[in-house]
Design brief:
The chain has a domain of 35 residues. The chain is mostly helical. It contains 2 helices and no strands. It is extended, with a radius of gyration of 25 Å. The termini are far apart. 37% of the residues lie in helices and 0% in strands.
Length: 89
């Protein structure tokens, strides 16, 4: 049985109107452009991701993609900037 919340007429304190800061619904979920690749992974890796994904109730491919995206983003931030050099013709 759930506990019932009992409301009282106590003062709430100073109130203020908050500006709407949420994006419109069509901007809540952005789809990134995907590229299909063929990749051979070890059975142990795939089994691991399948087990973890089942626990989290998400597709295992999405979990692998998220891992790769985070790995790439981390290394893009820390990668040294390369200077472009031009080759004389």
């Amino acid at each position: 049985m759930k506990k019932r919340i009992r409301y009282t007429d106590e003062p709430m304190g100073p109130l203020r109107i908050v500006e709407n800061f949420l994006p419109p619904p069509d901007q809540l979920v952005l789809r990134e452009e995907g590229i299909k690749v063929t990749l051979s992974l070890s059975r142990e890796s795939v089994d691991f991701f399948k087990q973890q994904a089942a626990r989290s109730k998400v597709p295992y491919q999405r979990m692998i993609r998220s891992l790769l995206d985070r790995y790439a983003a981390q290394h893009l931030k820390s990668a040294p900037k390369r200077r472009r050099t031009t080759v004389p013709r």
